[in-house]
Specification:
With 170 residues, the protein is an alpha/beta fold. It has eight helices and five strands. Helix content is 52%, strand content 14%. Strands 2-3-1-4-5 form a five-stranded parallel β-sheet, sandwiched between helices.
Length: 170
Amino acid sequence: MMASDLGNLTLIGMPGAGKSTLGVVLAKRLSLGFVDTDVLIQVNRGKALQQILDEAGYLELRRIEEEEILRLQVERHVIATGGSAVYSAAAMAHLQRLSTIVFLDVAFDEICRRIHNFDSRGIACAPGQSFAELYQERLLLYRRYAEITIDANRGGQEELAERIADQLLA
């Protein structure tokens, strides 16, 4: 079964990898609750991610994300993280204690095909950093923290949820 005694599952990956959408499908399939850390940030701060970025910068958004993740105390949930959660060693250590971490691995070209609102999506990247540079930088971190890696380039949400469930039960 799941590595975590709390029965949680955390999805990590790039924006556009399908963490939020797949998270809901997976939660239904496994009879778990669902939490999206991006939504938590927006609800608790009363602002969209992009607004936080515009007003305070990408490092502040990452700090807020870390804070929200460290406050998480859930059991039997699928947790969809923001794409930049992996920049915080503290947040990732907390998620490792809390859950099994699944990396939704999607190729750069496919991510670019899926994301059309790069400038307004609330993606935490350094000024002047290209999306390709951000992708390469994060890929190393996703791979470092992943307990399970799923090729999420193709297949519907139901199929991907089934593949993840099979991996968890293996």
